[in-house]
Batch of 2 targets.
Target 1
Amino acid sequence: MKVLVIGSGGREHTLVWKIHQSPKVSKIYCAPGNAGTLRIAENIDIMADDINALATFAEGEGINLTVVGPELPLTLGIVDEFERRGLKIFGPNKKAAEIEASKVFTKDLLKRYDIPTGRYSIFDSAGDAKRYIKEIGVPIVVKADGLAAGKGVIVCHEEKEAIKAIDSIMEEKVFGGAGDRVLIEEFLEGEEASFMVFTDGKNILPMVSSQDHKAIYDGDKGPNTGGMGAYSPAPVITPDICREIMDRVMTPAIKGMAAEGRPYKGVLYAGLMISNGSPVVLEFNARFGDPEAQPILIRMESDIIPVIEAVIDGNIDKTDIKWREEPSVCVVMVSKGYPGSYQKGNRIEGLEDVERIEGVEIFHAGTRLSQGNIATDGGRVLGVTATGIDIKEAIGKAYEAVSMIRWDGVYYRKDIGRKALFVMGSA
Ligand code: AMP
Ligand code: GLY
């Protein structure tokens, strides 16, 4: 079977890597891909949001299955267009992807189906939003309604920060139309975790849990990024909490989407705060997390293709997934300056030595091949992912590999996974 993977990040290299292991697959294409996908797939120079060009390519090449990595094409309706042309594709359609495209839609959905989430108010006028902030005070969280590349959420500990957030989102329109409405949410304390499931619209198959590290600096300091590293499992998600997430979050969300004429097929990702021992929903995403996909898929023992096919065919109740017991850690190596501006085109060294270490995979994100060398080509550059007997060994192996990789202006957090050690009481 011929498979097309759409996207160019660490998540997409991981998907290509996992799909490549399937005996059912004879050829993989990745559009547009990176220097990592290039080694096991054919990169196709079409951008992830160029839906018509992608569908025409899939038709012409006789692609049997398309797997969408990022949210943008999903929210633009790539699944609708492929299905209209009779092409098989994995992911939610446009109406279902609204769960990520609009935070206001999702909050209202959560409320209608009594799914635990923080208290909130919605504003379409900057003046009203500011008056509200002055009335209820801080800490508070300001969120742009639409997609903002992971930057539309501002946790404010001071009133002037919150007012500034309203100004930049609603007046200066730093996220364009995504900031026409804002959501102001109560600040929740607790431990964050990510929980993803495969769903065919009726049945739900959970993945193992994971935890991201969103802030740029050690100790969760500094601005939020797309994700600086992740590990799996997240010890904070105990078997009881896992059951609660399935019963109180995933099941009602999937049932609710179906009841509202938006049957949801694909991967549903819940960003959760575990607050006083119970899960509270911060957000839903319509796709695999990045970098969460890296430590999760490295633990997936089963072939991913039958799972994807069962999601599309509507029978994942007849499917099961086998997971490796060993925990895993992914350390994201970025270009200095990220999530602000950064240099591109710096030559990366040391990759070949790391490839010889057992139990370590280097998933590429912003990389490209330049005159025979691998060079940086984005903010998040590599996701160095390791498994180990325990989380401590996995952390050690990941950082051993990271220490062997160099380029001008490399930066990474030194504390990825440390939280898991604390939760388990072994640090
Ligand atoms: P989101 O995109 O909604 O998941 O928000 C991005 C990040 O902002 C989350 O991963 C949290 O670290 C933080 N965050 C979002 N909502 C809240 C909240 N209500 N209370 C505290 N932190 C939050
Ligand atoms: N790592 C967070 C996300 O994928 O949205």
Target 2
Amino acid sequence: MKRILVTGGAGFIGSFLCERLLDEGHEVICLDNYFTGRKRNIVHLLDRPYFELVRHDVTMPYFAEVDEIYNLACPASPIHYQYNPIKTVKTSVMGAINMLGLAKRVRAKVLQASTSEVYGDPKVHPQKEDYWGHVNPIGQRACYDEGKRAAETLFVNYHRQNGVRIKIARIFNTYGPRMMVNDGRVISNFIVQALRHEPITLYGDGSQTRSFQYISDLVEGLVRLMNTEDNFTGPVNIGNPGEYTIRELAEKVLEMIPGSTSEIVYRPLPEDDPMQRQPDISLAKEKLQWEPRVPLEEGLRHTIDYFRQTLEP
Ligand code: NAD
Ligand code: UDP
């Protein structure tokens, strides 16, 4: 049994990860400031004796004797990370420093939830881990992209300089139940809009692509990465290579909610919105013996069921 700290544990991904680690028999400390997470995501875990909840902000130092740290604290949806961009940079950078400092002090292993956004609007397709990316350092998305890039820099340097055991996961677009109704990311937006018979907001002409991974596949990948040998640090892409245009996604969601009277409406493409994104997952296949299992339709079905229940009066 290990004692494991999950920062951002009350968020979408964090809540599933906490649950998985508890199911494996570990003791879990879930740390969150509830900016984009909520108690509702983990309320079903509160009566489990090895689950502990801490209200804390990762920009402040935190101390606990732990064996492993999953550092997930950071808003992930563009509307939320752009709401207070300075805070987003602080969360990524100071959060990384605080968690790496803790890992160094208690000799814990620490995993960083990095992102495909480190590749920016990529000129190499699909994206491999050795691609350095194409990021605008002063654009609207920079607070997130550059914050996450700086966090990767901190991780590798704590490893090189102080021997901290690190793992870096570059997570590609992930979706599933427990996303907030007002999360703002594309899958939850389209499903909520279709269920409410509201217009489906397609940004730009919808020809930009994304590759969508279901939450259970990601959690499996993260746990496998944490359990790799110490000499493997990553970064490693964790995502589903199935690539779709956003227009295809809108059509698919409408097809899967047949009673919906929603129609597609066009809205301006946000600044620096990446035109294409698809992970090359050869490294994850080799080092983690991992690949995603849940096809888009199946994942969408679970997610639609979740939002249907959530939106019920
Ligand atoms: P989310 O917004 O649901 O979860 C983030 C959690 O972090 C929330 O519970 C929030 O309250 C908490 N948080 C934010 N700032 C904090 C702070 N300063 N101190 C403590 N807690 C704080 O997002 P998510 O989709 O679950 O993403 C989790 C992590 O995975 C993030 O680091 C994100 O960058 C990364 N990621 C997610 C995706 C994706 O598609 N979901 C893709 C790439 C990377
Ligand atoms: N998008 C859209 N309508 C929405 C929300 C998003 O067309 O209501 C588009 C967005 O412009 C982007 C893609 O969907 O091209 C994915 O957006 P999301 O915010 O989910 O994630 P990210 O851009 O960070 O990959």
